[in-house]
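Input/output pair, single chain:
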Amino acid sequence: MRTLFGDGTWDWPDRPWLRVNFVASVDGSAQGRDGRSGTINNAVDVAVFQQLRRTADVILVGAGTARTEGYGPVRTPIVVVGHTMPPLLDGAANARLASGPLPELIAGLHQEGHRRILCEGGPLLLAGLLEAGLVDELCLTTTPLLVGGMGKRITDGALLDVPLELSSLVEQDGTLLARWLVSRRD
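Output:
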């Protein structure tokens, strides 16, 4: 998997940046049979997931996603958006709970010096961040799976109309890793 790293594909810009990372199956499901994204990812996705985490200043995740996916303590500080801390993160030294307007939350993280914010979901949080115009980049892994059913997509909630611009596309072992820049409507 060395070819996935070292060419600058996953570098962060030298300014405050909110990057979102999701995985989906070829038929668009963001979850497997058990309701978790962890069951549709693969080794390629995990390698990128870990690289993005290592290089982020802070991880942002919805409380529901953190509970469903079984989030536990990580090295990178983590901010859980919701009203209750997931059990595995409760008491973790670098985990905290946040609620309130998303623009204020992101501005506060920037003021604390967190320039590289990595959002790992969930679909409601992503939709809220997109609706508020806060997302700079979407990293989307498409794994070579068809799962069928009524699985969630990477966004959930109100209809969105967010134009994207493809920044890079890498294929590794049949897995597509796309970086999409969010186009700003000024």
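The chain has a mean pLDDT of 93. The domain at 14-155+166-182 is CATH 3.40.430.10 (Dihydrofolate Reductase, subunit A).
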